[in-house]
Protein: Lipoprotein
Organism: Mucilaginibacter litoreus
Amino acid sequence: MIKSLSRFSLFVLLLTGCGYKSDHNDTKLIDFGYFTINVPKEWEQIKLRGEDSYVGEIKIDSDKVVYFDLGWYSNSLNEDDDQEDYMIEKGNIYLRDTPKVVKGKQVYNYKYLDTATETNLQKVRQNKVDRINIDGYKTKLVLSKQTSNGVTGVYIDSLWKAGDSKDRFMMSAYRLTEVQRAELLEAFKSLKFYQAPKRK
């Protein structure tokens, strides 16, 4: 765990260039019932009602929020599954071409790029993926290659056993500034999980 957290901290420093450091006097602890997280004092907790999972938000500013989903069907933040600029088919990558207008409608064609190896996929993805450890859980860390575009998020595939399934956890935000992204990365490190959701 220490090795993973050190790697994570180094990742944060490399991302921000100047090395963002949080001041614990400027943070507050938010308790969501099943987990806690330390965030900047000005961020606000927002309660939501989910259909089949526990969801909520943390408001960063007037137009940006951190969203979380704890349940059986939490989004795994797999960019390849939710993409319009490229598609993967039969082990190959195809890039979407400039649309043509046919009978008043835009029609897209896809052109072959290369085989769908991890190296080739990294060339077309907006986000980078790393594997880290948070609070003892194996965690997928997703970071946009450019600030103000893409996603900053974490995904844990198995928090607790839930009947025949398992509870998963996702927390993410989109289009963050460099400072906001560094603050969120610091917040991710502070995540502590302590209670499994009660099932009816």
In short: Residues 101 and 136 are 52 Å apart (CA to CA). The two ends are 34 Å apart (CA to CA). The first strand starts at residue 27 and ends at 31. The chain has two domains: 2-78+126-193, 80-122.
